[in-house]
Amino acid sequence: MPFGQIVIGPPGSGKTTYCNGMYQFLTATGRKVSVVNLDPANDFLPYQCAVNIAELITLEEAMEELKLGPNGGMMYCMEFLEKNFDWIEEKLKALGDDYILFDFPGQIELFTHHDSVKNIIERLQKLDYRLVTIHLVDAHYCTDPTKYISVLLLSLKTMLQIELPHINVLSKVDLMESYGKLAFNLDFYTEVQDLSYLLQHLDEDPFARRFKELNKALCGLIEDFSLVGFNTLCIE
């Protein structure tokens, strides 16, 4: 019964860096661990890669042959992987019961409304993998109330779409001070406390206050589900 992590998050949130750090940590503790790169656009891998989707398809190949843009090409690559799931199944068999880190691409469409990644994860579970989702979000989004709300919505939709045990992580917290001053203490953002305080700050923004009722409805939606919270992480 192998265990593993589904590592996801927007581009630049630190997924590959996280996989590298987690690989080093688990290896140092004596755990047998393997990293599986499922990002067809990732051409720089700092970690030792046990399985690489580039052996099956790359984003560059998909864009070139099918005349697709980056987002369309990425969706095609995931659909191609889903249709050729036997390929990854055979690769995983060779890893036995290793703890697996699945490094996924960053396009958020893949985790909010496109079904290929969800279907791939469901098939991994049918292979008896016990999985948890690690959703990384760059901590700089906390410095802007509008961006923070968008990240809350993204995290919530991803949790509902993927349907796995789920940990949201604010990455790069060691750089947070360089992004700007926070309006509230850090625990306000990690515990997703009373968002009415956030609405007050949005009302001070000349652009955001034009959408006062929409902002109120979005905050109410997030609070009604009461699912989203964050852990903080400095990979070092």
From TrEMBL:
This is GPN-loop GTPase 2. It comes from Funneliformis mosseae (Endomycorrhizal fungus). Keywords: GTP-binding, Hydrolase, Nucleotide-binding. Binds to RNA polymerase II (RNAPII). Belongs to the GPN-loop GTPase family. SUPFAM superfamilies: P-loop containing nucleoside triphosphate hydrolases. Pfam families: ATP_bind_1 (PF03029). GO terms for cellular component: cytoplasm. It comes from the Eukaryota. Small GTPase required for proper localization of RNA polymerase II and III (RNAPII and RNAPIII). May act at an RNAP assembly step prior to nuclear import. GO terms for molecular function: GTP binding; GTPase activity. InterPro entries: Gpn, Gpn2, P-loop_NTPase.
